[in-house]
Amino acid sequence: MAQKTGKAWQVFLQRGVARFWAQSAREVVDMDLSTLRRRRFQARRLRTHLDTLIATAESRLALPIIGSNTFPKPHGTDWAWRPRIWRESLPTKGIVAVQSKEPLGDEVTLFHDCKISEMTLRQMRNTREKDLAPFGVRLDVFRFDGSFLSLVVDLPKEAIQDLSRQFLIRMDTIVEMEKPLEIFARLNIKHGPNTEQIVRELPLHEEDIMVEFDLAYSKLNEKRIEKAWIDLIFEGPEMNQVILRDVTFSRRPRADM
């Protein structure tokens, strides 16, 4: 009973506040200056809270839903993952003049050898209905005086649990860019003192941008696997903007030959 009374009283107050501001808007032309200054101050303070509420509500209600880990997976997939930067809002949204080995979030790091960094890396909200990832990552490159630029994604421990040469590791992505460039994906698996590397070029001309790493052709020591990561290597990135709308990973056992 008390809860219903509280809600009714809250509705009553909200209606009263709405009537107050509606009346103030009608009387603003004839209001004396002292009252007008007071109303303006009150309105600005109220608008700050309303703008915050509206912006947060629109972000949460926009598609796709924050935290979503939904994406198509091949038949037989036993592990699938979308990194946090494409899934959840980060406390730090972006970095200007990104230095080499500077991370954005816990799983993504930018590497380069530029003397002067004229690059920005930023998390952005995806709002298109066709986007499944809640967020995207935008890389802006202006003058580039280095010889390499790569975005490193650290794979979680679940990706290498019980991993063997009988597995395929797949990466799917959605890429937008201002002008054409080449992007390579390199899978790195550290096993003991050695690191196995497999390189694939992203088929940017195709509608579905996907690469697979077949571990059957590697020299992987299955008993000594320690960690794995992916390098996204950008060739000729100067004066370009690259948006990674989504990046997802999955693995599955390869078919027996």
Count of individual beta strands:
13
Low-confidence stretches: none
The ordered string of helix (H) and strand (E) elements is: HHEEEEEEEHEEEEEE
Q: Bin the helical content.
A: 10-25%
**Overall geometry:** elongated
Mean pLDDT equals: 90
SSE blueprint:
Layout: H1 2-27, H2 33-61, E1 79-81, E2 94-96, E3 102-104, E4 108-112, E5 119-125, E6 135-141, E7 149-154, H3 157-160, E8 167-177, E9 182-191, E10 194-201, E11 209-214, E12 225-235, E13 240-253
Antiparallel strand pairs: 1-13, 2-5, 3-4, 4-7, 5-6, 6-13, 7-12, 8-11, 8-13, 9-10, 9-12
Which key features would you list for this structure?
single chain; 257 residues; alpha+beta; seven-stranded antiparallel sheet; six-stranded antiparallel sheet; 3 helices; 13 strands; 23% helix; 37% strand
